[in-house]
Amino acid sequence: MTNLNCRDCRDFAPIDVVKGVCHITKTTVLGDAEQCGDFSMMPKCKHCSQFTADAETVEMGVCQASTMEPKFFAFPDMVSVTCEYYEQN
Amino acid sequence: MPKTLKEVLAEAGSPMDFESGGHSPKEMVDREVKREPHARVVKLKDIYMDTLSSANNEFPYWYTREYVQHDTEIPVVRRAMSLKSAFSHSTPVIYPGELLVTHKAAFFRGSFPMPWLSEGYYMAKEDELYQEALKHGSASADEHTKFGQGGGNVVESFDKVISIAGKFGMRQEEIPALLKLAKAWVGKSVDDLGHKYEQMVPDYAVKEALMRNVICMFDSGYTLPQGREVINYYYPLEYGIDGLLDMAEELKAKVAGRADGDGIKGTNRLFNYEAIILSLEGLKTWFENYGKEARRLESIEKDAGQKAEYAEIAERLEWLSHGKPRTFAEAFQMMLTIHLAVLNEDAISGMAPGRIAQVLYPYFEQDIAAGRTNEDEVMELLELYRLSMSSIDCFASTGVVGGVLSGNTFNTVSIGGLNKDGGHAVNRLEYLLLEAGLNNPMPQPTLALLYDEKLPEDFLLLAMECIKTGVGYPAFMNNQIGMTFMLGQYGPEGMTAEEARSWAIGGCLESSPCCWKPLHLNGKEYFVPGGAGQPTSVGVHFLAMPKILEAVLWNGVDQRTGEQVFAPHDRKLATYDELFDQFKLYWQKAVDVLALTNNIQHDIWRKNNMAVITSMLKPDCLDRGHLIDEKGYRYNATFNVESAGTITCVNSLAAIKKLVYEDKAVSLDELKTAIKDNFGFKTAEEVNSFSLSDQEQRDGDTGKWDKLHFMCLQAPKYGNDDIFADQILLDWENFFCPDCRNYESLYAHTMYPCQISVSTHGAMGSATIASGDGRLAGTTFADASLSAFPGTDRSGVYALLNSAAIWDHSMSQNSQLNVKIHPSAIQGPSGSRKLLDLIQAYMRKGGFHIQFNVVDTKVLKDAQKNPQNYRDLMVRVAGFTQYWVEIGKPVQDELIARTEYEGI
């Protein structure tokens, strides 16, 4: 769980692409700020066992749960709270 | 230092900084009326004020992933499957303190691209897709659009945020996904397929030239295919999601395999109901997911008050995921979520909520009577609603979002008007809605007051108080004129006088057909109004009259680019009549080819990308089993022809008629040479001001055009009750309005005129050389359709009203008149009375629309210099209100330059 920050936290409600509200502290925090002691991981593709990272482009990958061939792409930073295929690594 | 035009004219004894009806105080004067919303709203509003427009790829990702799996499916079902997947996978986000929840995307002010509509415009400028869009004209308007540099606009990339289309911020990590999704739609989007087929129109080259030269501002089929209409919340309010699912299932079974006398589309009803069911399932899951998030937040919340609120929100959403609303709060939540769902179905501006205080009144009345709520709680929700609606962004091209919308999305709420039985429709909730606009001044929803002589006096005076806050709303629309237009346009589709009373404003100023439906609550029946028509302001969008005149003067050639746009007319233009005749011929040529090409774009849209959710809501789609593409809506004759730059063109024609043809003070050739030479001035781009008065003479200019330029500026101008100029307006309207009937929409109905400028007077003025009225190259056109050119209405505001009312406004969907008034001119109760008298005078003369900017020009000048001090300053632009810092400089300059009335 290295390199995770507030944007990867379940209790971070994104206001915009820079910042969000922390549901724990009720303060506005930067999304790129370091995680704190109350960190709770947000389901994202990058934490999912169905996700295979792309060898060349780090921001891309493949969703192995995709039912089509070739498998549909996925990207690591996508939130997976609502994804029925999500299985945490 | 080169002299500015303002200095040149001051020296000539004709100063431009003209004040009408008195003189403003030397010091800056603030607006008289100021109020504050509830503390909760203030807190959330503080977040809004510091929020960047943000976009992500979640919705397009799931939409596309589902879409590509079903390439053999029936198009309407495939579209609905994609929508269902996208809604079901949208991440819910709730902020502390919210009572009304749901957002377009998982940001406070979020949106997302819809590559199935168009994918080229948001690519990097060096990308081949963007270059292709430029080549065929669909991105030309982008090049003439300037966004406001402040507020929530992400005009430049920074850190890990990439600016897209000059407005939206996206995380750098998502850009590869953005590009991959865009490229998945190349050759398949409405834009691309439309372009493939529109080229088959014989005069397609003219269309492309019109777009490239910004004579027409934009296509409608793939930019904003829905909107400028009134939504209808009736069905979800009356039946709830489960009720609608049951109804659709029942009807599906009833029509499966049956043509029922319609051998072409009768059997389509099966697929349409299936699509409706899929969409409803997606919405149901969306509600449920928000409910789950509220429950999760309740579980982690330590503050008892906030915890209870999360529980209340969760209960509301859980109920609404299947049941019909029982209370005011439930009905309001349903309305908001359904509204956002529609906005996520397509790129949409101007999906007006309509007459919501009349729709919500049954819940309000019964909750108040039962003691379930009180007016203070209702007011808090109404104030929060303004925050939700102001947070709506539309992800579209720079030219569309900046050049037309100025970042606004025109979710207009109408108040006033008449009820089904012909009495006034004002109820207690309408007063509160107006008060909420006073308490929480924000751009949206803007308010449109449907003025009728029957409306209560105290309601109208409350509206004056609201106007005096400087928010620019409510705008006044003439109810009787609106109804006359409705009956004329929609009578052939069966509209009755009773139904005409239900009309409302769609978009910022687009009169839209509605209908009455019987809402039942606890055994009582209420007839509520709601939208029943297709989108308006689709068809021919923003055709710049001054540029058509330029083409007439130069034998079809655009003088900024040198491109032959129209076939040469080779006429001598020996008389004014010959000139005006040619103007009409070029106009007709442009409208004809644009109508055909836009029909093709919309045809692609209706075949592959049709509205399912909006359709389901609109009478009579559910009953008939036909969606928008099969004319399931009650009213389908909604396509129109939209003009721009009317008054700049009228003034130019007046100057040419007077100076060249009547007084013979100058030859047409000499005047053309002076215009081409920009009367010896620099261009607006060089000066970096788009206001006429700031323009500077070129270095070394000999002043050879000074006299002629002065004559052009002094020639008769519209807005002074001077028949010379006003007659030209009358002649134009008497040609333009009926001429629209010569063009047919893809739904086989004749078109009609739409006369609003939105923000196009800035972008289109920027692409236009000087004109015969003395306007200089690149400066804005006169705003709206009946506003005077800044500084030229010198005979008092009542003279302006007389000029504006010279023609029959009921021939048109709208007209638009903006007036700027210094706050000191309408101070106190007597000031309010004077303002109301002025409005009533105009309405009684037959004017359709009037609205006000109550602001001291000195404040605007200071705000332009020190934007950091004016984050919350709002101004009325055209049919909408916007934060000053989010408006582009051309329109800011024009707002500063508008004539300021110091007394009325």
> Quaternary status of these chains?
heterodimer
Instruction: Give the low-confidence spans of chain A.
Output: none
Averaged pLDDT of chain B: 94
Structural class of chain A: mainly beta
Structural account:
- The complex is a heterodimer of chains A (89) and B (904).
- Chain A has 89 residues and is mainly beta.
- Chain A has 2 domains: 1-41, Ubiquitin Ligase Nedd4, Chain: W; 43-89, Ubiquitin Ligase Nedd4, Chain: W (Single Sheet), CATH 2.20.70.100.
- Chain A has no helices and 6 strands.
- In chain A, the strands form 2 sheets. Chain A has a 3-stranded antiparallel β-sheet with strand order 1-2-3, with no helix packed on it. A 3-stranded antiparallel β-sheet of chain A has the order 4-5-6, with no helix packed on it.
- In chain A, strand 1 and strand 2 (19-22) form a beta hairpin.
- The N and C termini of chain A lie close together (11 Å).
- The model of chain A has no long low-confidence stretch (mean pLDDT 95).
- In chain B, the strands form 8 sheets. Chain B has a 7-stranded mixed β-sheet with strand order 1-22-18-19-10-9-8. Chain B has a 3-stranded parallel β-sheet with strand order 15-16-17. In chain B, strands 2-3 form a two-stranded parallel sheet.
- Chain B has a domain at 55-186.
- Chain B is of the alpha/beta class and 904 residues long.
- The model of chain B has no long low-confidence stretch (mean pLDDT 94).
- Chain B has 34 helices and 22 strands.
- Classes of the chains: A mainly beta (89), B alpha/beta (904).
- The A-B interface holds A 11, 13-18, 21, 23-24, 26, 28, 32, 57, 59-60, 66-68, 72-73, 75-79, 81-83 and B 47, 50-54, 57-58, 61, 65, 68-69, 88-96, 106-110, 152, 154, 159-161, 169-171, 173-177, 180, 289, 297, 300-301.
Short overview:
The complex is a heterodimer of chains A (89) and B (904). Chain A has strands at 12-14, 19-22, 28-30, 51-53, 61-63, 73-74.
